[in-house]
Amino acid sequence: MAASKLAVGVLGASGYTGAELLRLLEQHDRVQVEVLTGDRMAGKQIGEVFPHLAMQKLPKLVKIEDVDFAALDVVFCCLPHGTTQEVLRDLPHNVKIVDLSADFRLYDPKLYHQVYGHPHAAVELQKEAVYGLTEHYRDKVKATRLVANPGCYTTTAELPLVPLLAEELIERDPIVIDGKSGVSGAGRSLRENLLFAEAADGFSAYGVGNHRHAPEIDQCLSEFGGGKVEVSFTPHLVPMLRGIFATSYVRMKDGVEVQDLQERLEEAYADEPFVHVLPPKSLPSTKQVRGSNHCLIAVHPDRIKGRAILLSVTDNLIKGASGQALQNMNVMTGLPETSGLTIGPLYP
Fold it and tell me: Which position among 77, 78, 152, 295 bears the catalytic label?
């Protein structure tokens, strides 16, 4: 007898992360997409919004207030930051939630208020949230009903740093993270700086010294680092469609060599299906993970003695968003973790 399928709803299906999630869910044989929301697009077929999804048999987009959440097993929330808490706080307790916004990533509601400029609207629900960096929070993800899916910059930076801090191979300070993102990381809304004539043939920094992902990175690294970590993080916009490249500069503990970092990362991710440590001094590229749920990591010695450089790449819409969300859903529901995620990178 065939196993029953999970009834899934995607809130905010008219954005890039929603579209990528639907593309991945098409490959998953244990889910049935029952609900799609997109308030401004309500009443339309998804193929009218994203023609590349027209071949999939999916329900029409509806407004959130028209959704019967009690009929769903899992909800993916792809709504904009600041809009998710009020939607999710009253959902039935049987519904498992993967939130792709930043609304539940920060444990401290006061810090959330400080970073995002408005009070947290679901403080009680926040207490249940588990940070969804799957490879390092897997057991907690299994036991929760609400996963706060990490951001794309944070995922890409944290994966190489967490094992090294946990084993006390690198110092907590300084850690400098130079991040670069494709334009899809900013979402689908119309913004002047994302117009082709503005973004093409250029390279620009933004959020310098105060990007909202920095406290998320600090929180995660501090958990594994045995003390307070505050990183220097600068993001940059690169004129490519998708991809995240994080270059992290670290200082090693006394007596630690670059080879020790290499060996620790290889050990940490030896059995992980989506995180791959390349041979020493490799040069990963965002194209090598494009369209996939994979992260590539490379370790390099710095010319300055006692320091090292970590390179990591992901696809911001997959491992940095929708793919990791599906990975977390699989863990939450006891399904094989790679279900719906075995698609390889697109190249060139």
Answer: 152
How many angstroms separate the Cα of 264 from the Cα of each of 115, 132, 205, 267?
33, 22, 32, 5
Among residues 249, 234, 99, 68, the alpha carbon closest in space to that of 174 is found at 249
152 is catalytic: yes
Read off the tokens for 101: 């916004």
Token reading at 137: 């929070």
d(CA 154, CA 181): 12
Report strand pairing: 295-301 vs 307-314. Answer: antiparallel
Q: Return the amino acid letter for 150.
A: P
- Name residue 97's beta-bridge partners: 75, 146
Q: Contact, 125 vs 146, CB < 8 A?
A: yes
**Separation CA 19–CA 41 (nearest Å):** 13
Which residues in the chain show pLDDT less than 70? 1-2, 190
Q: What is the DSSP string of 220-258?
A: HHHHHHTS----EEEEEE-SSSS-EEEEEEEEEPTT--H
State if pTM tops 0.85: yes
| 37-74: pLDDT as tens digits | 998 889 999 999 999 999 999 999 999 999 999 999 99
Phi, psi (rounded to 5 degrees) for 37: -115, 150
Phi, psi of 308 (to 5 degrees): -140, 160
The three-state (H, E, C) secondary structure of 92-138, written as one string = CCCCEEEECCCCCCCCCHHHHHHHHCCCCCCHHHHCCCEECCHHHHH
Q: Which residues contact 145 (CB under 8 A, 6 or more apart)?
A: 93, 95, 96, 97, 128, 332
Listed residue (80, 78, 79, 91) closest to 124, CA to CA: 91
Domains of the chain: 6-150+320-333 (3.40.50.720), 153-316 (3.30.360.10)
Identify whether the C-beta of residue 213 lies closer than 8 Å to the C-beta of residue 153. yes
Tell me how far apart the alpha carbons of residues 190 and 270 are, in angstroms, rounded to a whole number.
42
